[in-house]
Amino acid sequence: MKYLLIILTSFFYFTVPALANETLDLNQNRIENFDIDAETQKYIDTLTGEQKEQSDAYFEGGYWLLLWGLIVELFVAWLLLAKGLSKKIKSIAEKISTKVNLTNFLYLCIYSVVTYLIVLPWTIYADYFREKKYNLLNQSFGEWFGEEIISLTLVTVFLGLLLTLLYVAIRKVRNTWWIWASGITMIFLVLILFISPVFISPLFNEYTPLPEGEVKESILSMAKANGVPVENVYMFDASKQSDRISANVSGIGSTIRISMNDNLMNTCTEEEIKAVMGHELGHYVLNHGYESLLMFGLVFLFGFAFINWGFERALKKWGQNWGIDGLSDIAGLPLFMVLFSIYFFFATPITNTIIRVNETEADIYGLNAANEPEGFASVSMKLSTYRKISPGSVERFLFFDHPSGYDRVRMSMEWKAENLEE
Fold first, then answer.
1. CA distance 46 to 382
2. Is the pTM of this model over 0.85?
3. How would you class 88 by CB atoms within 10 Å of its CB: exposed for 0-12, middle for 13-18, buried for 19 or more?
4. Which of 50, 129, 154, 354 is deepest in the core (most CB within 10 A)?
């Protein structure tokens, strides 16, 4: 088809030169008269003042959630260490088993449940009542809490296994444990990425093959054209949780699958769906999964190095009151975790930038793959319900892990301006 269009275009150009030149002049006028700023603003103006205020209030409130979340974690660490709760949890684990690895795992399981219960009031406010306030959650409290219990179980098991392995590294290699810890964490993340589409995601949503039709055919056609090895597209019932639009290409190797939620299917046009799926395919083709693993491997490396540095200094000052013997003592986990939280709090601009760069690259790839600039611009505005549409440069750097709606619409209009002739 591509070569047929080239031949037909060439035929018209050489056999009817007057018509060809007239068409080219018209395209040239369209390019010159296309105002990127004005076209971008047309999309921004589709939001009412009230919609912008609510979107901005929700997203800007998230800035404070980061700070208050850290304060809550500092409180939890103080409560467990200064009040001796961590030592008591360790004693309970040692009564069940005297084998160090099993003791550590049991401690981690109890620790996970205890800390969850301590922060539960904060979690209910931040993840339930606040989401309800902004109409971003469709679940009842019982439905929401049921998924919380599933998440707690998964975190308890997987984090328990990971930290047990990290404490093995701390005991065995000591001074260089933080290097080994970053490697172990990366391997663990690969495992999670591999099993997540098949074993974890279905615990929260039902995944079914997308019904046959033009939408499915266009997605699979794009996938094949861009070398994504899938034979099916899945849809999951995210509408039971919220009205947010989402899709993904998840998994590694044999578990790779394309998934889109029912909100995307039911509330978006075919052009918007193609634009979104082009973006998601871009993540796969550009190897963002592996790239992110490497980048975050470095982030974790520096994070564990920070813990190695900060843990000993904190022990020298407060260790006698806490009754912690050293970094390898599992009772010191609250200090381990809060140092990690402090590190990631201040590393937020870095981690956001890593993700945002990948998202921008996927945006560009999606525009070229789907050829739907209007679809991408309009669906970007539909994401404005929970993301500030026009942030300042400082906000963008500090708090945005995706391009803003304004940036995405403008990118779409810039792409359109460059491709009007086509």
1. 10
2. yes
3. middle
4. 354
